[in-house]
Amino acid sequence: MSTLFPTQGVLRDVFAAQTPLSMSIAKRSKAQQRQTRSSLHDPFSVWSAVDDAKTKAGALSEEAQKEIAKASTAARAKTGDIELYSLKYYSACTFGGLIACGLTHTAVTPLDLVKCRRQVDSKLYKGNFEAWGKIGRAEGIRGVFTGWGPTFFGYSAQGAFKYGGYEFFKKFYSDLAGEEAAYRYKTWLYLAGSASAEFIADVALCPFEAVKVRMQTTIPPFARGTFNGISIITGKEGTAGLYKGLYPLWGRQIPYTMMKFASFETIVEAIYGYMPKKKSEYGKGVQTGVSFAGGYLAGILCAIVSHPADVMVSKLNANRQPGEAFGSAMGRIYKDIGFVGLWNGLIIRIFMIGTLTSLQWGIYDSFKVFMGLPTTGGPAPPPKQTS
């Protein structure tokens, strides 16, 4: 029989302290359901997930930095202290250049493929994405990376001689000029050192460049791989066939490298000049960041200066007839394409070379830091005052 008065249990539930321990099981389950629904609709839960991801990423980054530091310490323990301008120093710079150029040029092979084909035939593709789509549908992903083999071998060799040679010749010419003249005419030393290094580096690059260009500008590619291509060329034209593009390669690469190193050194010096502290007071991350930024700006200038010769190299390797004189071939090609044709593919090359140069300087200087060496560039110390 129902009553008008509340029961003792109802009064206890209403007026007792509302804690989870004193609540009835039924009410507790309802409260848990409300809490669950609330958490599902909590707008700040996404923020907490992002913060959690950032925390985990930061922890992974710290672990990676610790592992890199351990590897760096182990490498230094094996090599010992590397004295500046010693044989160990030049060896380290040579290996750093090999890594920097070999990996970066190979990574942008798809860009280089389209650039070379558009330089030889500007009507072949309307744009890069159309080109990659056509090549991918016809040949698959392997076709998009046509020429990666000679690119890797050639630019690894070139990078080794370029960076290692630059460090050597810069020091060599500085010693010849003397301390005061070297400080006053430092830009000329950058230019001379880089030109000397590139002159040698291109001799190592040229055979692989000849194979690369022919693989990328013949459809289907004339060879199955790097050494198969070298065999085919030498079989038909002899060893000279691998070096018929050497003069235009020098014409392209030497001005390119002179601009690359001299502008990089100047830009990096200017960046540190605007920064509030000395270069030595900044950490490794800041210094390699400056190298990356300076490299990209230098790369834009490099692409513009060397582009006409780059077009001519592609044309000569693709269209020069056996036994045809160098000057005659250049004259015939220029007559066909004109001055405007020398600038085919410039925009994509600016993007490619800017990216390449920044990555190369970033990798090269990161490797130098890894080996306990200072990064490239920065304000040159003034000559010592003699009393």
Short synopsis of the structure:
Helices cover 76% and strands 0% of the residues.
Describe this structure in words.
The chain has helices spanning 8-15, 25-40, 45-79, 87-107, 109-120, 128-144, 148-177, 179-184, 186-217, 226-237, 246-274, 284-319, 326-341, 346-370. The chain has 387 residues and is mainly alpha-helical. The longest helix is centred in the C-terminal third of the chain and has 36 residues, at 284-319. It is globular, with a radius of gyration of 31 Å. It starts with 7 loop residues before the first helix and ends in a 17-residue tail after the last helix.
Low-confidence stretches: none
Q: Beta-strand level of the residues, as a percent range?
A: under 5%
- Helix count? 14
General shape: globular
Helix share, percent: over 70%
Explain the layout of strands and helices.
Elements: H1 8-15, H2 25-40, H3 45-79, H4 87-107, H5 109-120, H6 128-144, H7 148-177, H8 179-184, H9 186-217, H10 226-237, H11 246-274, H12 284-319, H13 326-341, H14 346-370
